[in-house]
Amino acid sequence: MTAAVAALAPAAALAADKYAASPWRKLSAAEWKKRLSPAAYDVLRHEGTERPGSSPLLREHRKGTFACAGCGLALFKSDWKFESGTGWPSFYTAIPGALGTKTDHLLVVPRTEYHCARCLGHQGHVFDDGPKPTGLRYCNDGVALKFVPA
User: Fold this and answer.
1) Residues labelled catalytic
2) I want to staple 24 with a disulfide (CB 3.0 to 4.6 A). Which of 52, 102, 116, 119 is the partner?
3) How far apart are CA 26 and CA 4, in angstroms?
4) Domain spanning 3-15+24-149: which superfamily?
């Protein structure tokens, strides 16, 4: 993990959790299953991963906002999306305060997982191989997002 990615975690930890009392955090697993497709439920609530190249959002190029598919919180602006070649929608920055992070140890190398700050739904992982101006790549599961046109 590089300094740019590692710097995300302390900032997120120090910020007050303005969504701590959110009703989205009080939903049961059964309630989430009613609201989400099986694929979205797996990713958002169990940190699953969709098959690369399967998201229609890869081909979404209109102006607008990409929001959490779980609770609708705006996470990314369309201007920040770029083609990473990974098979998942990718962004070089996020809307301030929209994401939380934690270290993920599921693979051999620790990664920085990020999730919706309001409902805690898993979105993806952030890497330090993105374009300027940030050098970051927020690699998002498309099924965890919904596009809201401008």
Assistant:
1) 139
2) 119
3) 33
4) Peptide methionine sulfoxide reductase. (2.170.150.20)
Sequence-separated (6 or more) residues with CB below 8 Å from residue 136: 4, 5, 92, 93, 126, 127, 128, 130
Tokens describing residue 128: 């330090």
At residue 109, φ and ψ (nearest 5 deg) are -95, 130
Helix, strand or coil for residue 32? helix
* Both structure tokens of 75: 């996470």
Task: Delimit the domains of the chain by residue range.
Answer: 3-15+24-149
- Which pTM does this prediction carry? 0.87
Length of the chain in terms of residues written: 150
CB environment 87-115: b (16+ within 10 A), e (fewer): ebbbbbebbeebbbbeeeeeeeeebbbbb
pLDDT at 14: 46
How far, in Å, CA of 76 to CA of 91, rounded?
7
- Per-residue pLDDT of 39-79, as tens digits, reads 999 999 999 999 999 999 999 999 999 999 999 999 999 99
Q: Which helix (H) or strand (E) holds 8?
A: helix 8-14
